[in-house]
Structures are given as structure tokens and as C-alpha cells.
Amino acid sequence: MIQELARLWSVHPLAFAALLVAAVYLVATGALLSWIDLRTHRLPNRIVFPAYAVAGVLLTTTALVAGEPDRLVRLLAGGAVLWIFYFAVRFVYPAGMGFGDVKLAGVLGLYLGYFGWGHLLGGTFAAFLLGSLYGVALLLVRRGTLKSNIPFGPFMILGALAAVAVPFGL
Fold first, then answer.
1. Where does the chain have alpha helices with state H?
2. Mind listing the pLDDT tens digit for each residue in 105-115?
């Protein structure tokens, strides 16, 4: 993300500003959603649904102002692909994932898709890895069982943030 912001500063200040606001929005919304999910095991629609519009407008503005329409296609495809993937996981094993996670996946897919397919794969992998490590840790300290519910939203958000912080080459 830092490298992309630095590159955009020299390309077009409006693209830089739009991506900077999108990044701040992702961090702020991600922190709020993580806190809520950890406490209630819910990802409220009143926060997730507006995130589609905010992320879509800011990332689309960034891509178009920077003259990079391929990023626009990738961000839309990334949102759709990640939403479909999480929907399939929920369809196969409904007890393992809530529909809030599916809805959040679309938003995170917009961000990850903007940065590229490597980021999309990396963010998805990181989310499942972090969630799995948390589950194993709960088992090891005897604070959970194999049947325990784990809020997955925070790990999805952490995985996405980790992926946009690391340059991937796909």
C-alpha cells in the first residue's frame, strides 16, 4: 500500500488522495467490524453494505484518475470472486461460516482485487491461516473445543491488511 501511495503521488494527487482515504476507511471500518465481531459474532449490514459503496467509489476513482482501467476490472472481479468463494464455503458447510463473512468478503475483494490477484490469494490465505492458528491456540490453552464458534471477520480483515502491506508478484 505504501509503495502504491508513493507511486500515485507522482502520477496524480487526486488518485493518491482517493487511495489514502480508501486505506484509512478500510482500517477504521475493519477495526470497528473486528471489535463488533469479537464481542457479538455478528458483522452488521449497516456497516458492511455502505463499505461496498465507499470502497467502490474511492477505488474506482483511484483507478480511473490514474489512467489504469485494468485495476477497475480487477477490483470488480476481485470483489465478485471473493464473495463467490466465501459463499461456496458457507454453502458447503453452513455451520462453519456466517453470511456476514460472505458479505464482508466482497468488500475485501474490492480492495485486494485493486492491488492484484496475488494480493487476493495472499489475503485469503492469510485469513484462513490466522483463523486456524487462533483456533489451535484456543485448543491448546483449553479455552475452546473443536465445536467452538470463532469470529472469522477479524482474521479476514487482518489477512487483507497484511496482503496490501506486502508486495505480491502475481
1. 2-11, 13-40, 45-65, 69-92, 99-115, 117-140, 153-165
2. 999 999 999 99
What DSSP element (H or E) covers 12?
A: none
The radius of gyration of the chain's CA atoms, rounded to the nearest angstrom, is 16
CA pair distance 167, 170, nearest whole angstrom: 10
Distances (CA, A) of 75 to 35, 62, 90, 113: 26, 11, 22, 4
Of 116, 118, 89, the closest CA to residue 102 belongs to 89
User: How many Cα neighbours within 13 Å face the side chain of 118?
Assistant: 7
For residue 41, the 8-state DSSP code is S
For residue 169, what pLDDT is reported?
A: 53
Alpha-carbon span 81 to 34, nearest angstrom = 22
pLDDT in tens, 123-147: 999 999 999 999 999 999 988 887 8
